[in-house]
TrEMBL record, chain B:
This is Transcriptional regulator. Pfam families: Penicillinase_R (PF03965). The keyword Transit peptide does not apply. It comes from the Bacteria. Belongs to the BlaI transcriptional regulatory family. GO terms for biological process: negative regulation of DNA-templated transcription.
Length: 616, 119
């Protein structure tokens, strides 16, 4: 019930903005045929009834989710914790912290308030429905003895204003004792109402207004719409008449119905606003084409602009607000850091698992562990694809006070891939201290927008230098910059080729099984422009292999094991260096040289040259 | 006998009764349906009400008028409205919802507006 109420409340707020704009537009249109003003109200009623719409940047509306976001979240304190990934202990602590924060008295108070308001709202609707049912029955009773006049027209002396009643088979009811001329006008007027289905529109409008009974703007809209409905109907009678009947029609209106109908006739056509109507009739001129066109365009434009939901910019503000709630000065604030991470948007197939804080020593860091599949992981080894993480890193740096580096560790359960960002990089990306963006909602929304733009432009342009990071989980690692970062994906693939050969080598011994592997370093250490017509790059490669049972592995000379029981890449020849040739549009794996060889020969260049010659 | 005032619908029904009396009530409902567009129940309710006021009588399913046509007159529709309706709503609701009559002054203003437009 509370949820429904909040939906209606949101619709009410949105529709109110639409109504205010339409009230203004009506003023512009006051010289135009009233059918345009009447048509404009359709969009308000659309907004009052339909909670969803399409999005457009041209929307005239402010964001509706802006206003009531808080109520919504606070009313559902569990919604946030549900968003958490499956990360074991960290998740558990996070959840308990979260629950403690969110189910505080404040939230439950708002929750209760919403519940009470929803109850009052329902009660109000019930009262209005009862009231309209009673007045409807009363009216029915009064016209039960109405006598057949002709066609669908009935007369009775129990009413004093003509009206149309009935949804399926609408009937025109007229008072007795009308003069023939007046009768002609009235019947014409009512028949136009029937033709335009106004007898259906008005009850729908009334019940919609009843749904939003707490909103005075809705009632104002209802009455203005009724007025426009009547006036456009009057105009239609005059337009259809061959002679100029403006004066006699006005006289009939005046003599017949010196009445104004209030709420009492929600379902029928009373005569309302006689004075305004007569004024309108007298001033009415048959419309000419050149005057109608602009009015048409205005109505269509306004209707479209108000029917559409605003796109993007509002969402930025809304999510900025969410993020800023968890702004913190200390990376050690696990609860807030967790909340921020849970609000981040990760790409498809990448799911947040848990996070790790590196707070024992400076530099302080955060590692966000993400689950994914091998294919997705490989995709994000290319720097060009890493922009979603870049954006998330910027957000985190902006919100978390003293964090120096942020890692995103992508794992497919087999292999890990680590993307690392430092605070300096984040500052460089946004052009100033990224922390400054978290000062208020507006600036932070800007940051979110910048983040999206970075993402977009990278995807669109598919070029430019960026920071690529490849490394291991042993703490902050070096990054390097390259002009052709989109090639790095290839280099990683080459590295895995080398690693897989090594794994195959170990597994030649049937007792040995390598159950995990990871790259701990892949860094360009040298670049030669003068060896061939292409540029030759040399990458240092370090990796770790995890055997199922270390004792089964025969460690030959130079082979080494780290403290966690992972095999190192080293051998008697040293570590492998990847040699790669590249030009503007291709990259080619040439082979490996070992650090041992390179050192013994005294020159890396010589070793690379030898490799090139061997390959020719 | 003083003249009795009848509402429009009552008068129309009596019109039929005067023309056809004595008339079988079933027959009367058929004529009313045809001429007035009434449902059977509407006609019977009307017969009952008029019988209570001794304007007609309904015995053995036969309807006869107790008053002559010249003794009754049709209610003028303008006269009835206010009194009839005012009593039926609580005062506060009535105040809020009652149709407001155009004041004489307003009517004159509008009249003037119309006259000016004809010039």
């Amino acid at each position: 019930m509370s949820k429904l109420f909040i939906t209606v409340l949101n619709m009410s707020i949105t529709a109110s903005f639409a109504a205010l704009i339409i009230i203004f537009a009506r003023m512009l249109l006051r010289k135009s045929p009233k059918i345009f003003s009447y048509a404009l109200w359709a969009v308000v009623w659309f907004r009052l009834i339909c909670p969803v719409s399409f999005e457009s940047a041209l929307s005239l509306l402010p964001g509706q989710n802006l206003m009531l976001y808080n109520v919504d979240t606070l009313a559902n304190p569990n919604a946030l914790s549900e968003q958490y990934g499956a990360g074991g202990a960290v998740k558990q602590t996070l959840e308990s912290t979260l629950t403690a924060v969110n189910t505080s008295s404040n939230a439950s108070l708002i929750d209760t308030a919403v519940k009470i308001a929803a109850a009052v709202w329902i009660l109000g609707i019930a009262i209005i429905l009862c009231y309209s049912a009673i007045s409807y029955l009363k009216l029915r009773n009064r016209i039960s003895t109405a006598t057949f006049y002709k066609d669908n027209i009935f007369e009775t002396d129990q009413i004093h204003t003509p009206f149309v009643l009935g949804l399926m088979r609408p009937r025109i009811y007229i008072p007795t004792g009308l003069e023939q001329k007046e009768l002609d006008y009235i019947l014409k007027h009512e028949q136009i109402h029937i033709k335009r289905r106004d007898y259906v529109i008005k009850p729908i409008a009334f019940f919609t207004a009843a749904l939003h009974w707490f909103n005075p703007i809705v009632w104002i809209s209802y009455f203005l719409m009724s007025k426009d409905m009547e006036m456009s109907c009057d105009e239609e009678v005059i337009r259809q008449s061959k002679e100029d009947i403006r004066v006699s029609y006005s006289r009939s209106l005046l003599s017949l119905s010196m009445k104004q109908s209030g709420l009492l006739a929600p379902l029928a056509f009373g005569e309302s606003n006689i004075k305004a109507r007569i004024k309108n009739i007298i001033n009415y001129k048959k419309p000419v084409l050149w005057a109608i066109c602009p009015a048409c365009i205005l109505v269509v434009a306004i209707s479209m602009a108000l029917a559409a939901n605003p796109s993007d910019k509002i969402e930025y503000l809304a999510s900025a607000e969410k993020f800023l709630e968890y702004k913190t000065d200390y990376v050690g604030d696990a609860s807030k850091v967790g909340n921020i991470i849970s609000l981040l948007d990760f790409p498809e197939n990448v799911n947040y698992s848990y996070f790790e804080l590196h707070t024992e020593n400076v530099p302080y860091g955060i590692t966000v562990h993400l689950n994914t599949d091998a294919k997705t992981r490989n995709k994000y080894t290319g720097a060009i694809n890493q922009t979603p993480f870049e954006k998330n890193a910027i957000i985190m740096f902006s919100l978390i006070g003293n964090v120096d580096y942020i890692n995103f560790n992508l794992t497919d359960g087999q292999n890990d891939y680590l993307i690392q960002y430092t605070k300096d990089q984040a500052d460089a990306m946004v052009g100033k201290d990224v922390r400054e963006f978290s000062l208020d909602k507006k600036t932070f929304a800007q940051l979110l927008k910048i983040g999206d733009k970075i993402e977009e432009s990278f995807i669109n342009e598919n070029k430019n230098s960026s920071i690529t990071t490849i490394g291991g989980a042993d703490g902050p690692l070096k990054m390097y910059e390259t002009d052709k970062v989109d090639k790095s994906e290839q280099i990683v693939a080459f590295a895995w080729e080398v690693i897989n050969k090594d794994i195959a080598y170990y597994e030649e011994n049937p007792a040995v099984k390598i159950i995990d592997s990871k790259i701990t370093r892949l860094e360009r250490i040298e670049s030669f422009d003068d060896l061939t017509d292409k540029t030759i790059d040399v990458y240092a490669l370090e990796y770790r292999l995890l055997p199922e049972d270390l004792s089964k592995v025969v460690l030959a000379g130079g082979m080494d094991v780290d403290e966690d029981g992972w095999l190192k890449e080293t051998s008697s020849m040293g570590s492998p260096l990847l040699v790669v040739s590249r030009d503007d549009d291709s990259i080619e794996f040439i082979g490996i040289v070992m650090t041992g060889t390179a050192v013994e020969e005294g020159s890396l260049k010589t070793a690379v040259k030898e490799l090139l010659e061997k390959n020719q | 006998m003083s003249k009795l005032k009848l509402f429009d619908a009552e008068y129309k029904l009596m019109d039929i009764v005067w023309e056809h009396e004595p008339i079988n009530s079933t027959e009367l409902t058929k004529i009313c349906r045809q001429k007035l567009g009434w449902k059977k129940s509407t006609t019977y309710t009307m017969i009952r009400k008029l019988a209570q006021r001794d304007i007609l009588k309904n015995e053995n399913a036969t309807v006869t008028a107790l008053l002559k046509r010249k003794d009754v007159q049709k209610y003028e529709s303008e006269a009835l409205l206010e009194d009839k309706f005012n009593g039926s709503l609580p005062a506060f609701l009535a105040a809020f919802l009652q149709d407001k009559k155009l004041s004489e002054k307003e009517a004159k203003e509008i009249q003037k507006m119309i006259e000016e437009a004809t010039k």
